[in-house]
From TrEMBL:
Keyword list, A-Z: Ribonucleoprotein, Ribosomal protein
Protein name: Large ribosomal subunit protein uL13
Protein origin, superkingdom: Bacteria
Native source species: Helicobacter ibis
Database matches in PROSITE patterns: RIBOSOMAL_L13
Gene Ontology, cellular component aspect: ribosome
Family that this chain belongs to: Belongs to the universal ribosomal protein uL13 family.
Pfam families in the cross-refs: Ribosomal_L13
Function: This protein is one of the early assembly proteins of the 50S ribosomal subunit, although it is not seen to bind rRNA by itself. It is important during the early stages of 50S assembly.
CDD domains: Ribosomal_L13
Gene: rplM
InterPro entries referenced in this protein's UniProt entry, alphabetically: Ribosomal_uL13, Ribosomal_uL13_bac-type, Ribosomal_uL13_CS, Ribosomal_uL13_sf
Amino acid sequence: MKITKMAKANEIKREWVVLDAKDKTFGRLITEVATLLRGKHKPCYTPHVDCGDFVVVINAGKAKFSGMKLDDKEYFTHSGYFGSTKSKTLREMLEKHPEKLYKLAVRGMLPKTKLGRAIIKKLKVYNSETHPHSAQVSKQG
């Protein structure tokens, strides 16, 4: 009789993966990041357990976008007060806060639960080549 093995949180072996965003399409890179964070690439994947790896994205501001997205796509914020809606274009977000842009995009692909909030903490995004996690890094993507 075969029994499906469910992964436990203390049995998960996490790795550090570095992804270079330079000249890669933004959307395809984000889906790869979400898959690695969630742990769906591992044979021991269990939906209710955080099985994923740590992901470090470098050169975040150098990703490619197709079409007119840089000028047409807008991100909105609202403080809760009347008339406080503010918007920024994708180009502004990419120049000023690329880390925030990546976290917003990945968060949309993760579960909207405590598990999703724990998973997003394993994403590290840097706008340059250097990052402080060089001692942990084991795989280059």
